[in-house]
Fold each of these.
Amino acid sequence: MKKSLFYIFMALVCAACLLAGCRKDKSGPSGNGDIGTALDNAGSANCYIVSDAGKYSFSAVKGNGKKPIGNIASVEVLWETFGTDTAPQPGDLIAEVSYDEAKNAVCFATAAEFSKGNALIGAKDARGKILWSWHIWMTDIPEDQEYLNGAGTMMDRNLGATSATPGDVGALGLLYQWGRKDPFMGASDIAEGATIQAASTIGTWPEPVVSDEAKGTIDYAVSNPVTFILENENNHDWYYTGSKETDNTRWKSSKTIYDPCPPGYRVPDGGYNGYDGFWAKAFGENRNFKDEGGFDSANKGFNFGSSGKGNAKLSNSASTCWYPAAGTRLASDGSMQAVGISGFYWASSIYYGAGLCLQVGKTDYISLGAVSYCASALAVRCMKEQ
């Protein structure tokens, strides 16, 4: 009789769990056959876009390469965020995640009610070391925008942004250290001088560490995707070389396994005056310049589309081509700076040991050849591969 009551009780518990939509971070291979919609049919990457509720999967490989990441013992959601000042509850974006060993696939299911935001899924070995991680970008499908002068095609929003609307905090997106594939939180507000990062399921993020022989390596960065690596005094990079020289192969003109963009896109080239800069070509400029009255002080950014306030245009076919002043995280301490004042957009190019970037700011100034220490975290706008 007691055994019967026990089995009835366990059945009721299981039924309640199913009705509540319990989140499952599977600690071992599943191999259950139903792996959902494959996100990597157009190629593998470190980031995948999801725009509807459902079940999904992707191959457990390094970026856009084919090499498996190692012996996976477990997969789990490392963090989730709406990109606002409201923290999600675990499972609000991704309700379930598992690993299918037979197919070498990471499988996950969104919450029944789809929410826009971002999440990071990590795969671990038997000792708990993170072998690789993937960014799940949950947003409406970004639009492609043709830029002027045959420069190419860009997404209509920052990487990790859930909106392309001027003045929307969701348009800020995520921030990246140069050459790292994993994102960090952007600001929780568009207000000038905002310093609080977007809320996430990580209550307290790890303290930043200083780059050295042990912590300034690819292996450390891959194994610690939520740890900000501060600059070292030699080259002001998170990547430690022991000298003033830096490594310029982490991001390149041809997509690398550390590129943070989704399949079919990459970090664009930058600079001017001899550099094949994407923005310089589109603007038709080979210098830094001012676009008088171009900065939208109410919405904190530039609209470089046909309806923009200034004369500088990146696209005439798009009414709105929004570049928010998303700010930066400093290489020295990881703090948020210049939100609502300046926007910094990484290029894949290196100039004398620093990363080239596009800089736009509230003084109407546009710098096509700005540089930033590689340990800084800036926004990324993904370019369509040609």
Amino acid sequence: MVIEVTEQNFEDEVIKSALPVLVDLWAPWCRPCLMVAPVVDNLAKRYDGKFKFCRLNVDESPRVAARYRIMAIPTLMFFKGGEVVDTVIGAVPARALQPKIEELL
């Protein structure tokens, strides 16, 4: 399951998460974002209970996007212990994300 996060719940869902987190930063008008969404959805099913997956609409949560200096979307950010540990920019296949997820488990 992918959790929709906003400026209001980002701290609780991402920063304070006991599990490592992948945050998919996107916008509805972004075609590459729409291409990467099913990849993230499938990974969320595969790693359910071991890894947390969140999605943040940058248009609706501009403060979070600004805090992490998001200049392009889709951006996939990996958090562990409340800190950003890796970032991937662009629509990438699952095989590019799986090693990063496995490394953080």
Amino acid sequence: MTAPSLSSTLRTAAWVAGGTAGAGAAALAYASLIERNLFGVREETVAVLPPGSKPLRVLHLSDIHFVPNQNIKVRWLQSLAELEPDLVVNTGDNLSHLEAVPPLLEALKPLLRFPGVYVPGSNDYYGPRAKNPLTYFTGPSKITKEPPALPFGELFGAFEDAGWAGLTNRRDSMELGGVRFDFSGVDDPHLDRDVYPGFPDAGSGAGRPSLRVGVAHAPYQRVLNYFTDGGAELILAGHTHGGQVCIPFYGALVSNCDLPTRLAKGLALWEHNGRKVPMNVSAGIGTSRFAPVRFACRPEAVLLTLTPRS
């Protein structure tokens, strides 16, 4: 057999390199131009309500990372009101631009007529910085320089005016469909601002059907354990972006916190000290404006149908 010539080998290598580069460019174009705008609703059913309760629908929003002129995102957010949720839970990172609040509130206006609760994320307080996106894969990111402050007060003030309850290191209760929802929420664990407030005392509501819900932006294990040990029956969080750039049929490579990557998105059970609690981690709706890509991880809102325990 005649050995291939050097020129033939070089041509083959160049062809393979060119094909690989072309595939990479196509994947990047898909991730930045197409998939990040393929918004959808993941639907889950969770049996956590007291026996005899009627089903309730909870719309979980997270990581909108809004930037002005995101018209496709605006129309999709507005359309979510058609789901007619009984409750909206916003787990933070709404902003990604200094001028994002007015158009974001316009996008959320149809949803603000429903009962809601919220907690902040780091990108409600601070704007993102341009940086090498590959650093995302080195471990949980931290803010190391003075970042630009965002107008979170304006955003959260509008939420409060609409009747949404802030759960920033706070506990609160509301009644929905004959069930008392007892919430415990924390400030962003990613910024080490979390102070676990416990859950509301039963008080005069003792004996009434109730549900304990823990709400956080970033699902760090310490916070999940606080909620679980405190008697949570459902935990909602975001932050991970589901890994944002995933490997098909494998999943996330990072969670941007200490949560195992297998739990970076979806409905799962969190276990601590012998208790197991359903936990929904949203893959989120947006991205940082300096890393506007998603691959094998479409943006999502989550519609949880809560049903009675058997």
